[in-house]
Amino acid sequence: MLDPTTLAKLADRVIAAQDNARTMPKLTDEYPSLSVADGYDVQDELCRRWIARGDRCIGVKAGLTSKAKMDQMGIDVPGFGILMASFARPENSALDMKELVHPRVEAEIAFVTKAKLQGEVSVEEVMAATDYVIPAVEVIDSRYEQFKFDLPSVIADNTSSARYVTGGRPRDPHSLDLRTIGVVIEKNGEIAALGASAAVLNHPALAVVMLVKHLAGRGSALPAGSFVMTGGITAAIPVAAGDNIHARFQDMGSVSFRFV
Ligand code: 0L1
Ligand code: MG
Known about the structure:
Blueprint: H1 4-20, H2 27-30, H3 36-52, E1 57-63, H4 67-73, E2 79-84, E3 94-95, E4 104-113, H5 123-128, E5 130-140, H6 151-156, E6 161-166, E7 182-187, E8 190-196, H7 204-217, E9 227-229, E10 237-238, E11 244-249, E12 253-259
Parallel strand pairs: 1-9, 3-12
Antiparallel strand pairs: 1-2, 4-5, 4-9, 4-10, 5-6, 7-8, 7-11, 11-12
Helix pairs in contact: 1-3
The structure holds hexanedioic acid and magnesium ion (MG).
Magnesium ion is lined by residues 61, 63, 106, 108, 138, 140, 231-232.
């Protein structure tokens, strides 16, 4: 467990890199014994600071949910990150590249909950507690050079969370087969990535199951009204100023925005 001085120092470092859109050395270079639990403690400290600035926590993201990313990191549960209201951008808006380091976009299904979820829950319980699902595109932006990190460092960087955009149509989760939603991301009118929602742990609701278990391990729960991004269905696509992104989700509509 980090002492309060080290925790504050690490949070200062991460928040400065995020605010100034610059990279930083891996935190484990200086703190080799930093653990994943310490990384989550840094996230909690970031959250306290964002709230002190007037921001609002609206939910959680699950990241590292694809088999490829899990194998690469040697994990079998996702890495989670905090989502603040200030990370959201409206559909069809222009995202400012000056605020970002080397962003990538990935298509995800987001869940919005209507009941509290706590402890060990099943996929069915997650589905029953879900108000609606909605298409989303996450903009990830590691604050580490070339997206090179280890697990504790990337958790402390809030799992590379930067921006997210929702769009399309909110849908009752029971009206869809959430394992077989096809998604296409177009960049500047060309197909840049495609996938099916089973890429997320075979069922995106399983990311919520694992999130709720993770929260229980940290003595908390997922409140009703949470917005949860369940993980990338497609590969993460690098983007640059001038790029237009259009993500089409089968039976759910599409999400569009651009980078300037
Ligand atoms: O949302 C994600 O899957 C990203 C999690 C952090 C790792 C990365 O930046 O690729
Ligand atoms: Mg993601």
